[in-house]
Amino acid sequence: MIENKKSRTKIVSFERDADYYFLKYQRQMDRGAYLDALESLRAAVKKQPENSEYKLALAEFYTEINYFEESNYWVLDAIGSSSGEGERCLFLLGCNFFGMREEQRARECFEKYLNQYPNGLYVPDVRDFLEMMDYDAEEYGVPEEYLERSDEGRDYLDSGQYGKAIEILGQICRKYPDLDYAKNNLALAYYCQGDAQKAIALSKEVLEKSPKDAHATCNLVLFHLSMDDPDALFYYCGKLETLNPEDVDEKIKIALTYCELNENEKAYRVLRDALLDLPYDPQALFLAGAAAANTGKLNESLEYFLQMMKLHPEDTVALYYKNIVQEAIDRGEEVVIPYNYQVPISEMHRRISYLNSCFRKPARQLEQLWQEDDYFSSMLLWGMNAGSTMMKRAIFDIICKFEDPKSQEFFKRFLLSRTEPDDLKNQALLCLRRMEVPQPYIAYLSGKIAEVRVGVMNEVGEGFTKSHQKVLEKLVSLAAEHGWKPYTPRAIELLGKYVGSFSKAPAMRNVKAWAAAFLCLSALRDDQAARDLSMEMQSGAGVEKSSLLRCMRAIERKLEETDSCSSR
Prior knowledge:
Elements: H1 5-8, H2 18-31, H3 34-47, H4 52-64, H5 68-79, H6 86-99, H7 103-116, H8 123-140, H9 144-158, H10 162-175, H11 180-192, H12 196-209, H13 214-226, H14 230-241, H15 248-260, H16 264-277, H17 282-294, H18 298-311, H19 316-331, H20 345-359, H21 363-372, H22 374-386, H23 389-400, H24 405-415, H25 422-434, E1 441-445, E2 448-452, H26 466-482, H27 488-500, H28 511-522, H29 527-539, H30 545-567
Helix pairs in contact: 2-3, 3-4, 4-5, 4-6, 5-6, 6-7, 7-8, 9-10, 9-11, 10-11, 11-12, 11-13, 12-13, 13-14, 13-15, 15-16, 16-17, 17-18, 18-19, 23-25, 24-25, 25-27, 26-27, 26-28, 27-28, 28-29, 28-30
């Protein structure tokens, strides 16, 4: 009888360690396979998260591809676990701030570097950066702080805060009327706020002085496109055709304008040119993927979306359109992809419905989803990027309950976002404190990165009397004693909102009842949790039912009254 050799064959599996992936990363970098190298480096960090060398290598990679916020996260994370890497960390932070156009912060880092490491490895590079910043200020004839202030106005514009953008950029343009890029952004802010005539006038002022200004030309094309002015639109489209900028930001602006005009071939041509300078820019990659699909180049489109997913594995927008393009290829059909970086309304509604259904699940099921279901985690991240403030707060409340390294990383990353509002970041700070994550926390607040320490007494702001402070302290202690810490951030938020709704808030004499009431109201998204908490407060904490209900009704009435007034 002949024995089947296959039956005797054993497949020996082995667990690849962090060093294996780091060595693989180095080899892939040597071959120029940068996106594959990034995947390997991420795997090394995941295998050995305490290794500062791996984290700083990841930070350096992100700096090289202009992912400055992501790099900052890993630099700041490495600082806490590294010894003797201060020189490298300080240099990277300076590079990132320079790339983010926060030149004052960059200068602080670089000058600190020269003071601490006068013979350091990066001294020549640091001096080059400082010379470049001095040159920029001299070139524009504007003090450095005004250049940075202009960038702050642009950030407000990007985040949809048009009033603040107009206030800041208007001040700068009045003082320095020849600062064209500030004037271009001011024109956009006026247009977005509904004042098209003022926007057009400002853009024309720029073109009179600088006839080849790409941003002003593109702005005028977009303004007249929306105003149904065919003659003016034809004129400025003609000027657009004559532009051939070398600056990559101008190329992206021109490409975006062609996208708005549905000039797909022209948009794709400009985007391919821009990607030679910015091969890993997520906006350029997405637009190129859409433009390639809209010109019938589906295989090229698929490649762009795959590149996006290698850069951001959690990017569900890129995943959605990757699948759409793949299905079109398989069926031999054409497909049209919109140029706005979001999923269609129908898909958005489906995702919101999915999240809402998840939020109604018991706490244990949610925690299991968080730990085991990548799709659930990715939808939470999508909701944080695309959802309303209300949805973001709901997601915060959910993730704060898990109290694991994954949720801690989520909040730490959120704190370093430049575009999210400070009030949401304050909630993230409270969540980290409730999770007993060691302080200080690093956060991007009020336009600056700073170390933040969160104390019970200063969590809810000014205007609190001694009785309100006592309620706050009791709220925190009750939650800790009875295992209701996940509801603490929302309860503190409700307390602050309630007290803030009065010109002079009344005293809260029954401290325990008021504290219990805010905790119970914070749990109302989960009916069973709210009932359980109410019973716990009545029995275990010794709060009378009548007192608890009276306080809850008072809070609800006042907050409803406040919401009603604000909506008028």
